[in-house]
Automatic annotation (TrEMBL):
Pfam families, per database record: YlxR
An MF annotation (GO) of this entry: DNA binding
Protein name: DNA-binding protein
InterPro entries per record: YlxR-like_sf, YlxR_dom
Keywords for the protein's UniProt record, in alphabetical order: DNA-binding
Top-level lineage group: Bacteria
Record lineage: Bacteria, Bacillati, Actinomycetota, Actinomycetes, Micrococcales
Gene source species: Dermabacter vaginalis
Every YlxR domain range: 1-58
Length: 86
């Protein structure tokens, strides 16, 4: 699961991915699946979870949820290869 938290206050709430899963404040969880992410972004899932209007445009535009999804489904991408002396 990917955790998203809100930043800011008042009328301008923006969403950011919480890679540690332990940032302070209200958070929402979404499955690491492109269909679930698209559904949450387009159908108001985050607004319902946070019980307030939130700006999902930056989150959708930057592709941060998609990158988090890729990191969870392919955890070894970008990792150093393991070499053994032989």
């Amino acid at each position: 699961m990917i955790r998203v938290v809100r930043e800011g206050g008042g009328a301008s709430l923006t969403l950011v991915v919480d890679p540690s899963g332990s940032a302070h404040g209200r958070g929402a969880w979404v499955h690491p699946d492109r269909a679930c992410i698209a559904f949450a972004l387009t159908r108001g899932g985050f607004q319902r979870s946070f019980r307030a209007p939130v700006d999902v445009a930056a989150l959708a535009k930057e592709g941060t949820l998609e990158r988090a999804c890729e990191a969870m489904t392919h955890p070894n991408w970008g990792a150093e290869p393991h070499l053994e002396a032989g």
